[in-house]
Each structure stands twice: as C-alpha cells, then as structure tokens.
From TrEMBL:
Entry protein name: Uncharacterized protein
Membrane disposition: Multi-pass membrane protein
Coiled-coil intervals, chain numbering: none
Species per Swiss-Prot/TrEMBL record: Diploptera punctata (Pacific beetle cockroach)
Transmembrane portions of the chain: 61-82
Amino acid sequence: MIVLLLCVELVLRTLNAMYLTTSYVPVILDAINYNGLAFFLLANLLTGLVNVSVRTLYVDTGLSVVILCGYMLTLCWLTHLLHRRQLRLRL
C-alpha cells in the first residue's frame, strides 16, 4: 500500500514538473519551513511531556505506537495551525 502511494506521488510530481512551472510542496513541510523554531521547541516540550507522564521503558509496543502517532499528530497540527494563522516565533 505504501509503495502504491509513493508511486502515485512520484507520478504526480513528474506530471507537475512537466506541465506546470510551479513546484509542489506539501502543506506540512511548508508549515515546518515557515516556523522551524516553533516546531523544534514544540517537539522538545512534547518529548518532555511524554517522558514525564509515561514510564517509557515499560510501555507495550501497541501503546508506544499510539503515543508516537499522537505525538506527531499534535506536533504537525500545532505547526499547521501556526502557519495557517501566519504566526511566526522569532528571537
């Protein structure tokens, strides 16, 4: 299934490069590029939150996958939300 999705992505990128002059960038990559510092700081805060709240050495494999998926979903959602509202963290 993943191979099929990667093939579709490759075909779409090839067609886009052949017929259009604009480049295709996935929304989440554009959001991370727009606000890289916020992505990094949020990732560190979420990592600390997971490490404090869960005894990670003793967690079952299935639960660890759920934790990782929730971690990435939260991180990507917050980064996308900041990008959509055009909020940028600067120092």
